[in-house]
Design brief:
4 helices; 10 strands
Amino acid sequence: MLCNRLARLGLALIFAYPTLSQNTWAQTESSHVRHLNAPLSFEANQGQADPFVQFLARGADYHLTLSRSGIALRLRNQDDKSAQPAEVTMDLVLPGEPSMLGEELQRGKSNYFVGNDSSRWVTNVANYGRVHYRSVYPGTDLVFYGNQGSLEYDFRLEASADPHDSVRCRWRKAAPR
């Protein structure tokens, strides 16, 4: 009777833990590696974040926001849950305001059911594999992409663009809060 109640609560893993075989551990490790290689999923902001944010991505140990003026990456320490997150920001020193587009539409959708008032729920939020900043500088686009283990970005320059005259970024590392 007690085992049935525990199983319904999801606590049966406690009893299964000691009997996991080497093969099961290998599958668990393989699953973790597959998760790290899964593409980042950038959500279009449809009201689930500050209006300043255009796109966001979340994972077990990070929270990333992308706005027209740059990005903010908050990192959490998985080994010390009580530690405050550290934040790194990349400010784009821009001559104007770039347009931002989600690219590589993913099959999954995000939903935010917060509270009992359904008018405040945000549903069917599109997820993308890349975020493309168009014309961040004359003749220069910026694209963010990656997987759960890394965030990458490319400045894409037209043949006539001069990176020495146009590409300007300021990186800041904020102390843990």
